[in-house]
Amino acid sequence: MLKLAVNLSMIFTEVSLLERFALARQHGFDHVEIQFPYELSIAQIQEQLDRHQLSLCLMNVPAGDLMQGGHGLAGIPGQEVEFHHALQQALEYATALKVPSVNILAGKQPLDSDLLPCLKTLADNLKMACSMLSDQGIQPVFEMINGTDMPRFLLQNVAQAQEMLEAVNHPALKMQYDCYHMAMMGEDVLGALQENIESIGHIQFADHPGRHQPGSGSINYAEIFQWLGNSSYQGFVAAEYRPSKDSNSSFDWKDSLI
């Protein structure tokens, strides 16, 4: 049985973040994820989780200016102090809200920086994150993002993620595997899941192309969900797509595929 979650940062955006928890429950979800929950206080989030009997299964460490087109924090030489502060804020939220996994976004290679120092900075910061998060029973994960949507992102495919896992060499660290991003990179989505499932701590999905709900593109989610349901994978599988129309009408996949 898949542990399904819905991403409140990309779905139900017709209403405020505070109002999206109720919609998640109305559509039958037990778990939610929020990319950056920091616009709400811990108390506000906890109240919504309790009211609607939800768990928060994933959030990101603050990523600086990454989502506004900047370089981010985790893999940027000279931003180590800022990353440490961001990690402390994420740890405060995650421990209080009992979030099982926290995602670290690598960031983008600055045009005036060489790649290797960025990757070394990222590895060092991931080691620190692994120590701080795993001490609190929280699983650290990191994500690969395609280079079309986010040019110069430091980790764009499975091979690069495997190399980073080796460089960090910490048993707690896992990949966050986003099916859409890997399809954008031309990867065999199901094949990569099958080959790397022991190294994957969290899965997200959207169809390709378009990043809309399953059934709107070319990814065979019936096959993927069936395989995951029969696999050893124990993590969450989260809908992180942009609804092609309104959010409330984007859940046909939930009845037909799960």
Question: Can you describe this structure?
Answer:
The chain contains nine helices and eight strands. Helix 1 links the parallel strand 1 and strand 2 (31-34). It is α/β, with parallel strands linked by helices and 258 residues long. It starts with a strand and ends with a helix. An eight-stranded parallel beta barrel has the order 1-2-3-4-5-6-7-8. It has helices spanning 17-26, 42-51, 80-97, 115-134, 158-168, 179-184, 189-196, 221-230, 252-257, and strands at residues 3-7, 31-34, 55-60, 101-104, 139-143, 174-178, 200-205, 236-239. It is 38% helix and 15% strand.
Question: How would you concisely characterize the structure shown here?
Answer:
The chain has 258 residues and is an alpha/beta fold. The chain contains nine helices and eight strands.
